[in-house]
Specification:
Layout (H helix, E strand, L loop, with lengths): L6 E2 L8 E2 L7 H17 L5 E4 L2 H4 L11 E5 L3 H9 L1 H13 L2 E4 L2 H11 L6 E3 L13 H10 L7 E4 L9 H10 L5 E4 L8
Parallel strand pairs: 1-2, 3-4, 4-5, 5-6, 7-8
Helix pairs in contact: 3-4
Length: 197
């Protein structure tokens, strides 16, 4: 059996360890993480440490002992947006990429970007695509009103995707999921900024 501990600056009832400090601004909380992590690591014995979002948690991997396996998750927005617009985020990303034993991402496109733009060895990047589920939930009245205002609502079943329509989000998997589902209806993929449309 495996034991999983969650360390988070959010601390909303899920975390065994809280990395943030009350009263600190977000950036100060993030920058304090290695110090708090060292304390956690000195009192516990972990086989694997997984930093779940590269530009927020990547830098903690440099504080993890050599004997512990280190995994970094890269989502897309952290590399394509956060790291380009914020020098601190870019630094945390680079520290994460340099110290990780393995990197996970959700699409082949992000794997290529990490390899070509950041020189990450392609063999240490695992692509774990977004999946899909056959559990469907009805829209509430607010969602229906918003869709009507956008001019895309129709009678009958309408399936919405909350994923932004960008290559790193594997929209084709959502389309595959819709195609193999037993639901007869229309699929609407909601996009983010205008450039994504």
């Amino acid at each position: 059996s495996h034991k999983v501990n969650v360390a988070s600056r959010l601390g909303k009832g899920i975390a065994d360890f809280e990395l943030g400090r009350k009263g600190f601004e977000k950036e100060k909380q993030i920058d304090k993480m290695p110090e708090v992590l060292e304390e956690i690591l000195s009192n516990n014995n972990f086989d694997v440490v997984h930093a779940h979002y590269a530009t927020q948690y990547g830098h903690i991997l440099k504080s993890v002992p050599e004997t512990t396996r280190k995994i970094l998750s890269v989502w897309g927005e952290d590399v394509l947006d956060d790291a380009k617009n914020n020098s601190k985020c870019a630094k945390r990303l680079m520290e994460g990429l340099e110290n990780a034993d393995y990197i996970t991402t959700t699409s082949e496109q992000m794997r290529l970007i990490l390899n070509e733009n950041y020189g990450v060895d392609i063999t240490k990047i695992w692509v774990i695509p977004w999946g899909y589920t056959n559990n469907f939930f009805p829209m509430d009245k607010v969602d229906k009103t918003r869709l009507r205002k956008m001019g895309i609502f129709q009678e009958g079943k309408l399936i919405l995707s909350g994923r932004v329509c960008r290559p790193q989000n594997n929209i084709e998997k959502i389309i595959d999921g819709f195609n193999v589902s037993s639901v007869d209806g229309s699929l609407v993929i909601l996009t983010g900024d205008l450039s994504d449309k």
